[in-house]
Amino acid sequence: MNEYVITAENLTKSFGDFTAVDRISFEVRRGEIFGFLGANGAGKTTAMRMFCGLILPSSGKASIGGFDVYRETEAIKRNIGYMSQRFSLYDDLTVQENINFYAGIYGMSRKAIREKSAPLLKQLGLEAERNALVGSLPLGWKQKLSFSVAIFHEPKIVFLDEPTGGVDPITRREFWQMIYEASDRDITVFVTTHYMDEAEYCHRVSVMVDGRIEALDTPGGLKKSHGAASMNEVFLQLARKAKRKGD
Amino acid sequence: MKQFINFIKKEFIHIFRDRRTLFILIGMPMVQILIFGFALTNEVKNSRFGYIDLSHDELSQRLVAEMDASNYFEAAAEFADRDEMEGAFRKGRISFGLVIPDDFSGSFHSTGGTKVQLIADASDPNIANTLVNYATAVIQDMAAGASQGLQIPYVIRPETRMLYNPQLQGAYNFVPGVMAMVLLLVCTMMTALTIVREKENGTMEVLLVSPVKPIKIITAKAVPYLLLSFFNITSILLLSVFVLNVPIRGSLVLLFSESVLFTLVSLSLGLLISSATASQTAAMFISLVGMFLPTVMLSGFMFPIENMPLPLQIISNLVPAKWFYIIVRSVMIKGTGLAIVWKETLILLAMLLFFMGMAIKKFKLRLA
Amino acid sequence: MQAIRIIDIEKSYPLKKGKTEALKGLRFDVEEGELFGLIGPDGAGKSTLFRILTTLILADKGEASVNGLDVVKDFMKIRRQVGYMPGKFSLYTDLTVEENLNFFATIFNTTVKENYHLIRNIYEQIEPFKHFRAGKLSGGMKQKLALSCALIHRPKTLFLDEPTTGVDALSRKEFWELLRSLRAEGITIMVSTPYMDEASLCDRVALIQSGKVMQIDTPEGLRNTYGKRLFAVKGPDMLHTLQRFRKMPAVEQAYPFGEVLHVVLRKDAPPFRMPEDVEASEIAPDIEDCFISLMHEHE
User: Fold this and answer.
1) What does the pLDDT average to over A213-237?
2) Domain-wise residue ranges, chain A
3) Which of C19, C167, C208 to mutate to test the interface with A (most CBs of A within 10 A)?
């Protein structure tokens, strides 16, 4: 059985003479929580977009959930979930309508949606808000709901782009608990964040600098190899090497 | 003052850096004029015409041959009578008809004057009008040729009859119409958009929390579009005069002053829209639906106001473009002066004061 | 003298689609020359307070003054004296770095040269990119440029609404170093952030949540008034260790904190014995622990 759900080999993306992502190689195991760190403009977003099948790489190889990023982007999109701080749910649809809409996109039947959404709403404590507009929910609830919706169709991998920005510390932790639970169900979690304490929650962390992966290890391993007390220090050491300042 | 000039400079940078929009702003009026202008001439090339020749002699056949030889017409069929011709019109086989009476050459040679009847399908009035003009020209050319060497200047007098739309409007309508449309689009929509964009970016908050007086912000935003409109007016007029041969019979100074007046009205409408909206999408929507459509529909440019139901006629009075359109048509095509258009000018002036006053009153010193 | 006075400010207004943002009676002062932090999550009311203080919106109730000037009556005077960087401020992305700076200098009737010493630290970092369009800069650089623009007229008081949101850890650190150096210039700075770790860099902070101030103190003071025993715990399996601690009666809260769990004991907790199969040590609270504890009390 192939344990790796994400593999990248010398994956590169150039825009003109600017190499946004420069020969990155790594693997992510099934059920792993993989932290994808990097300074603004290090190339994280471009790499993420390649993995989600939104842009084609310039060279190198990568497969997501066993599907090739060049030829099988449609299959990739069916097998992943995506959530970001900027784009999550429709404010002018109700909680249930949002669930129906996203699950519908992934071809889930009405019956399956109905059966799954009841326990989900119960778990989130949103039963009473089922028919409330998402826009009226507090940000923290929205983010949790948004994550649940992203994994509603049981994708192999879920990509989270700064999922906890601006969320209060308690909700942030509840959010991470949900990430752990997803990982327990063998959903692979690929996450970017600017909260360095969150990097510690990941099984493994990579740090991108100027389009390359400068370091990749468990948080413990990284701290040890960099002689640092926290992931924050590790990050600062690595990010200082950057030459690039533009996006 | 330096502050103000720098502000305007910044606005120009915004305009010039956004190449695509700039291209549309400058190119659109020219393209519109050219399209409107050449849509008229292009369509007329090789129009199919039918004829009834009751005279059947050398002169009448020469007339048909000359028509056929010209770029504008192509002989499609000869008919025995009017019913047959009417049928061909209905089926759309021909768009132009020529009826040559039986005494055509007779009266030409004896009295020096003769008649032909031109029949045009005026369901598209502009084309019909142009066809008639061309046919007239062809006939007159031929008449001049035929009368050469003869002592009496022979004249063939065409008698025209318009089918389907007897009250045909002038063909030059579109120049004043396009001017109104372009000025409104550039001034109203672009001014509204540029201010709302600052709201969306959060830069408006910084500008408000600076010592710059709100009136300066507004004016600085408006000046570049005023100048751009000037450029557009000039390019439209130049194209009209030199490419489309539309005359400017009245005073150029008056024409420009009236245009500036209308530009200012449009600008204040743009400012008004910008203070009432918070997103570029909303500003665009209001500009298009609230300003642009009424201008096209109710200014008299596309559809004659006198044919509209009374409620629409009354509403059309609120459309600034209607008054501007009347003014430009009078000054440009009829060559009238302020003595004739003072009433319309006064109406525009009143609108300007009203909208500008509203805009300044509504421009918020705060966010909410 | 107090640079900023806030007396029982209340404000509520509808945002889009039924959501309301509200301030429920805020009252505090900021001293002259202080670097004051407003710490709280999105929707706590930070931006609303900033807009009231920068005279952009009016409060429903209460009074406020900036540099001794009333935010309602003297709003034009205030506008001349303050610098403001709104939350979603993104400069003019189609203007170059230099053009942005020059523009903001002229609207404040000054020049880049006049107060160059204030922005020199920042400007030297962005100078190599001065012909770049601002839209091409990375998040951290953009925020530094925006700060320069807000500083260019040497404001007495500076309002920075979430300047470091979405910015990477290194740029955030550099940004805070800049703020510390400005404080040395005697400029009063009020800055908001959702990142709790930045609180320790302020002179004083207000922890706010749902339009209410939960506590105002120095970072040190916040930690000292925590008043509960806190342990950092490391177990073999974090998720299960966490669930185990949450079931213990003496434990008020247990939550992940970086690589460890933080376990908070009840004030009236019975004698507690730490299980022996975990690594545990008693620690001093972080600002984030304080925030979590306060949120708990306020619920």
Assistant:
1) 94
2) 4-194+208-214, 215-247
3) C19
